[in-house]
Amino acid sequence: MPNHYHLILKQLIDNGISMFMHKLADSYSHYFNKKYERSGSLFEGTYKSIYIKKDSYLFWLSGYINGNSEIHKIAKAEH
């Protein structure tokens, strides 16, 4: 996706996902800014998250994420 991404993560320690997302955004911003000789932030706002309580929702979400490029009419999803 050219303007967003989706991840399914399992939190193993308190605030683990928050720390991971901070490190991911920070390190990617540093890489991108260095590569394209620019400065400043790349991401708008904070990440959004939901807690997955049921396996059925996890399965649906996995399908949604894998088909996201087709949903947004960017590319055909691989079946």
Task: Give a structural overview.
The chain is an all-alpha fold and 79 residues long. It has one domain. The model has no long low-confidence stretch (mean pLDDT 89). The chain has helices at 16-35, 55-66, 68-71. The longest helix has 20 residues, at 16-35.
What descriptors fit this protein?
3 helices; single chain; 79 residues; mainly alpha
Structure summarized in a few sentences:
Helix content is 46%, strand content 0%. It has 79 residues and is mainly alpha-helical.
Q: Pairing-aware structural class of the strands and helices?
A: mainly alpha
**Shape assignment:** flat
Number of strands: 0
Mean pLDDT over the full residue set: 89
Please write the string of helix (H) and strand (E) elements: HHH
- The number of helical elements comes to 3
Radius of gyration: 15 Å
Q: Report the sheet with the most strands, covering strand number, pairing sense and barrel closure.
A: none
Which percent band covers the strand fraction? under 5%
Number of domains: 1
Distance between the termini: 17 Å
Residue stretches low in confidence (pLDDT < 50, at least 5 long) are: none
DSSP helix fraction: 40-55%
